[in-house]
Amino acid sequence: MAVTPWVPGLTIAVCIDGTVLHEYDDDEDVEVQPGLGGEHQASRTTSKYIESTSDKDFVVKVSLDTTFRMDCPAYHFEVFIDGQWMYGAVVAQSFYASYFSAGQLIRPLSFDICGTIQPAPGIPGRDFLRSFRFSRIETSKLLTPYMHIERILILSALDEDMLKDVAEDSRFMKEAGEIKILVHRGGEVSAAISQASAIRTHAPAKVHEKSLKGQAKSHTTSLGPAKELAPLNYSASKMIDGKEYPRAICRFKYRSIAALKSLLIVPRTPSPEPPIILESPSPTSNGRQNALQSHVGPSIGSSMKRERGIKLEEENAPKKVKFDEILTIDLTEDSDDDGDIVVLN
């Protein structure tokens, strides 16, 4: 679970089927966005990689432990996926009075953000929940008919439409593959009406392969079937530090396991060594070996047959030294050749 040092006691994670997804460190420098608060946001960002699985619903889990202290009336949690706002939640002391004592959380508190809320068509005041779902990116090739006239390349009207599609897909893919949660401090909470609005229901069915050039992205997020919700109570709270100055930002870059390996986020699995197959000798080769053995004689290291009463010695065996003779070496004898030793028998 991603820990945010700027909000002690807060952890945020992405889960599938109730299991927290394993997180991998993102060593890339956080890009400083232009405009007001860009440097502040970069300094407050925690970034992780997670593995995405096609057609699996996921939830964003927010957890607060007893080290969390509420230093303001409320905290805001805003969820952006693929660059688009999806959900906003408010945690206020007034909502969870039994969890707080003088601003200090006295027992753990957690909640799941399971999807986005959309208005029910034609039914005022009723909303639907649509779950978050990982969807594999499908690509199409850009097939462009060209006319070559006097070495001048002229684009047809169809070409211009295709180029517009590529540009639109490129803008979408730039922010695709990321779940971002912004945490703000909030002021006093007041009642509000539903702000649910129509949100893009899914990513483009297919994107041009050129829009993915240089990007190891494998999935986007689509929305699951609509599920009717019981009437909800909505609240509003002002961001006391300003929209551009969140207390913390958590980013989850989701990729397939193959994409994570291509980015060297996950170590590649080494290819298994091919087994060494030793061919068993054929009967023909066995016969040749036996014939060669009988022609050459016993191999080195084999025992020699000894006839009874006959002692055999190897020709190259070292001779034994006899100790019944006495060797006298005269070290005082003068010699014409320096360094010679005279042996006296």
UniProtKB/TrEMBL annotation:
Location of the region described as Disordered in the Swiss-Prot/TrEMBL record: 271-315
Q: What is this protein called?
A: DUF7918 domain-containing protein
For this protein, the record's InterPro entries field holds: DUF7918 (IPR057678)
Give the top-rank taxon of the lineage listed in the UniProt record for this protein.
Eukaryota
Q: Where is the composition biased (Low complexity)?
A: 276-285
- Annotated DUF7918 domain ranges read 9-140, 159-269
Q: Name one Pfam family in it.
A: DUF7918
Composition skew (Basic and acidic residues), residue ranges: 304-315
